[in-house]
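Build the 3D complex.
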Amino acid sequence: MSYLEYHAKSTPTGLRKVLHLNWGLLLLLITVSSVGFLMLYSVAGGSFSPWVEPQVKRFGLGLGVMFVVAMIPIWFWRNVSVLAYLGSLGLLVAVELFGTVGMGAQRWIDIGFMRLQPSEVTKIALVMLLAAYYDWLPAEKTSRPLWVLLPVALILIPTALVLKQPDLGTSILLMAAGGGVMFLAGVHWAYFAAVIAAGVGLVSAVFQSRGTEWQLLKDYQFRRIDTFLDPSQDPLGAGYHITQSKIALGSGGWSGRGFMQGTQSRLNFLPEKHTDFIFTTLAEEFGFIGGFTLLFIYMLIILFCIASAIATKDRFSSLVILGIAITFFLFFAVNMSMVMGLAPVVGVPLPMVSYGGSAMLVLLGAFGIVQSAHIHRPRQSSR
Amino acid sequence: MKRNSKDQDASHGRMTRRALFLGGLQLAFAGGLAARMRFLQVDQADEFRLLAEENRINFELLPPARGRIFDRNGKVIAQNSPSYRIVIVPENTDDIELAIAKLRRLVDIPDEDIADALKDIKSSKPFHRITLSDQVAWEDIAKVAANAPALPGIEPDVGLTRVYPQLSDFAHVVGYVGPVSDYDLSKMEAPDPVLLTPRFQFGKVGFEAKLEEQLRGKAGTKQVEVNAYGRVMRELGRREGEAGADMQLTIDADLQNYVQARLGRESAAAVVIDCEDGGIRAICSSPSFDPNLFVRGISVADYRMLTEDNYRPLSNKTVQGTYPPGSTFKMITALAALEEGVVGPEETVWCPGHLKVAGRRFHCWKRAGHGHVDLNTSLKRSCDVYYYDVAIKTGIDKISAMANKFGLGIKHDLPMSAVAQGITPTKEWKERSYGKDWLIGDTANASIGQGYMLASPLQLAVMSARLATGRSVTPRLLKSIDGVEQPSGAGEPLGISENSLRIVRKGMYSVSNDRRGTAYRSRIIGDGMRMAGKTGTSQVRNITAAERAAGVIRNEDLPWERRDHALFVSFAPYDNPKYAVAVVVEHGGGGSKAAAPIARDVMLQALYDGTPPLEAYPKADRSRIKAQQERLERERVKRPLGSRSSRA
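Done.
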């Protein structure tokens, strides 16, 4: 019997669990989502359709899912981690075989009432599996090579499948989140140093080879990398979005043009104005103050998670909470870097704000697990 | 598994440290994001606000003018003509539907065009100019221009569209352009951005497709500032494009036009090659079609008419169609035998009307036989038995090698679609293709251009030019690119003894100048203009022993698709060859009757560079020819441009 189950009797039961929810976290999530509704209402030109209404419905559904997940004890979630991981791999294979091609990539499976993006589920399942793995693995084995290689393989399998879709953004997120959990679990820092050094070495070797006889990539592949890294070289393609996005953002100024007053994002510049580029509208209409506030709320959510993870003595709980927090952080960090022209355009939405069903539902489910860990944390008093 | 609580505390401690470390990193990154936000929104705010509020930057692609195509004398075969149209630039309007609705109150535009345009808008970038209505009358353009303030995003525009003024004459040579499709794009590694412009005209078939990149040129870009109503305020930058290259063909448009008319409604092909430099002077496949139909997308009804026609107007029979060359192949067999020394020019073969080969009877076309036949007579009267005999002595591989030297079984490199290689069978080829051994009877069939042997009309014309000159004349279609002359196709000597060539040419001369020659009726009168040729009639069906016994059914009594193909190859003038002509009339019956007269008329037209005098024809034919010339003259008058059938 594990440490956590030993102390199970001291955790709240029945409806009393509701009292032990992490209310602060819940309130922050509702706030962020409300910002999303507001912005979707604005980009639709002051209308609940076509985006706000379905988004609110999904948020309601997501809250329901979150509560149910939160009520179920955390050890149940630990025990189903392997199943969740295998299930998500199955979905990834299924989307490869039967998926719908959207935006040039195979990502969706239509399951009647909504389109499911299996790669969203995978992010959470991978974090759960790694947390369960390090919960099970005796601490002294953590840094032994064989026991390091296994989780690396567990990360790379879904990454490869997602990359094949092709969805570069999600595969980067998967690797970063997986690596993050391994780091937190205490894998020796030398491994990370080695991987980073190897990565830097490989990239610089590829670039050094340019124009020499042993050139590692074809010329047109280099040109593609160039436009990927510096979109201004392709002013009619990728660069167009970034230029327009920066103009919209910058024109917001200190305090913005005011709600529903944005002109840039209202004209048909950005095909993704309600999804990946929604931050542009927020920043234009509410200025630096609005954008900074959103960033601040996001960081508060991260801090609440870290606090909750440190407070619990259960290893699985800590790792899963921190893993989910990293995933959440990567979402908004990558998205904001992208719209501000700091990172190449890869399809990553702004979490809880961008229009989209799968991502919101899955994130709320994940925060359900965070809540469950919080409710069912072992309490010192009962020892 | 029991864990000791000290261990646990240690690992929990480490996790807490690492969590705080990662949290710190995240906080630092968020700080960076905030700094960037501040930089864009506070430090650079004025600049961006100016860009945003007063003006916006628009990118425009400047589509290049497609290269024009001319004939050898500078006559226009393909050009671009201005077409007025109404376009919408989606990023310049808040409400596309409303703008279009307003426009339709002014100008009449069919629902389908609007539906097409809306589809294009969805699939393109917001700065692309989407055509709402094409080929618009000037008054409508004026109305749109006058009401510009009320029609945000909508502009009159003058664009270029491809026009083929020679109508059906060059459909098979030049091909046509059409709106670029998703399928076209999917085949490209990295498509030029200008191709993403909706309905951009792109070479689909033939010359237009083969030389697409050179004809297309390079698009320029223009960066302009526009105000909130989409009106251009000033130009910020411009990168000029490059117009496509102008191309000149070796073809003579007048001759091409004559040949096309002369072929009429037959399912036929004719090729005229300049013996001196290999330049193709005319290359016609009949029936043809009007390529202008395809430029903006052909209607379903028109397309069905073209595809359901038995005579296959869309297929280019000159390079794509392959036929058994029949007796036109006999020169090759004769040359192979002469060069191998298995037969001398004076040696005769006894033709009783058939030859027994490996227990099977191979018949001569003349049942009664030709008696004693030497090489000259064998060509003049097209005796089959002579060739069975000498071919078996020579061997198939030697014959095929000789055929390859003359351009048969070789894929000629021409900028046209689906150029066929044809077949010159060898022992190894049959083993590879059918897994069967070569039989001696196969050699007999091949010797008279039947059996596995297949050649395109282009290859037959090349063969004639090479027979005429003894050089490996290479066909070419492109005379110059942007005024730069392309290499001549005169070719090197073939390395065949002049003696053998002279004997074979003499035989071809007899075919159309000797009273007993198979094409005597299609001779050319006048010294220095004499034509040498060879008829061919290739079977498309097997004649059974029973049918032969009962008497072979005459071609006229057979259904069209089972009649023989009629062929004729020729060069002239005999003593100083200038042109080589090959004609194939699908299911036309006998070569001497159906193909030779066409070849003769075409040859004369080429030699005289226009309508030949009646004196060039045999006396008895002159009145008939005069009537034919007048009829063709009327038919060659072109339909005026713009009589396109309407789009469906």
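DSSP finds 23 helices and 21 strands in chain B.
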